[in-house]
Amino acid sequence: MSEIFQPGQVVQTVSSQMPCTVEQFLGGGGQGEVYRADLGGRKVALKWYFPKQATPEQRTALETLVTMGPPNEKFLWPLELAEAKGAKGYGYIMPLREPRFKGIVDLMKHRIDPTFRALATAGLQLSDSYLELHARGLCYRDISFGNVFFDPITGEALICDNDNVAIDSKAQGGVLGTPRFMAPEVVRGDAYPSTQTDLFSLAVLLFYIFMVHHPLEGKRETQIKCLDLPAMNQLYGTNPLFIFDPDDDSNRPMPGYQDNVIAFWPIYPQFLRDLFTKAFTDGVRDPLARVRESEWRAAMVELRDSIIYCPNCSSENFYDVLALRDSGGALPKCWQCQHEIPLPPRIRIDKQIVMLNHNTQLFPHHLDDDRLYDFSTPVAEMVQHPKDPTLWGLKNLANEKWVITGKDGNIQDVEPGQSVRLAIGTRINFGKKEGEIRV
What we know:
Elements: E1 10-13, E2 19-28, E3 32-39, E4 42-49, H1 56-68, E5 80-83, E6 91-95, E7 102-103, H2 104-108, H3 116-135, E8 138-139, E9 148-150, E10 157-159, E11 166-167, H4 184-187, H5 195-211, H6 219-222, H7 229-238, H8 259-264, H9 270-279, H10 282-285, H11 293-305, E12 307-309, E13 316-318, H12 321-326, E14 346-349, E15 352-355, E16 361-362, H13 364-367, E17 380-384, E18 392-396, E19 402-405, E20 411-414, E21 419-421, E22 427-429, E23 434-438
Antiparallel strand pairs: 1-2, 1-5, 2-3, 3-4, 4-6, 5-6, 7-9, 8-11, 9-10, 12-13, 14-15, 14-23, 16-17, 17-18, 18-21, 19-20, 19-22, 22-23
């Protein structure tokens, strides 16, 4: 690829008139090229459009996005437009992505091995971020695994390429999306990108994150000799069929060809599988029946809270209430080593069930409905007894005391910094909510 700029060349921001020095070519695509640059001592990314892409309409759209600002800090949002003497067109400055953030392609190619907790955290942050974007009356238009990144250790997520974001009712030109991620009605040419089509793309993205596979690519894909445009239109547009459709098994994944999804699908709890089933059955047929961002967000939190560890191999598994009922009270064996998993201690807070593992923390959203999905500071954590490591308790990290009621009816205060021992039937009054420990 021919690079527009060389290291050391200077562009200038339009509004602040600051010099921005190009440092390194990072990559390019159909719209333009991206560079690492220095803006007044701050490392930023510079995207420069190819002449055909540097249209007046694109510039106006960028100016609108700069004025609006990002929905939250997860978006690497356009900060300022840039121009340069001797260079055609224009570009824009955005925050620079840190090297710790990896793409979904890295996950697909097994270059990273994140935990289920990290994946659930990434799913939570992505769902929440797209919800905030849509709440502003905007649509992303091109949700795909090429535009999102996450830290495989923490799950922290970032959303890139935000110059394609458009006002929902006016997104009738330009980017239509990425093949395999576009909603069926967009593939067929029946609709332009919108908030509703974003919801389909988000569901596909989440399916890729958890199943490392596409939700519509099963037996039918293996029978296609040439995956050309007519074949893709049929597979993703005119005749899409979920690989786990409960009423039609003609597109099931094929062993030896689509082994990722065969392995991962049964690992996850039923509530997540049900949500994916809704997304790719009702949501394929009716755009208004698609899973909302808020539904995915709630599911990601529940998924995090459902994690349990195999005592034999330490692999993450999931506490699945529905599976527990079907099995008569026994947990499924560990998916990794097939070792039996004993029922672990847990706490029920209203309708939430949180598994009490060695690394479990409770956050403000667990204890206060007014602190929706607040993971800012833990308010409780699991700790070992200082003299007997076989005993575990829940430590109060909040600023207010708890009041506990034992199974025998005895009442006791738990001041900040103190712990309550895990004992069956113990009730903890956190202030706004009450929880009950079950072991």
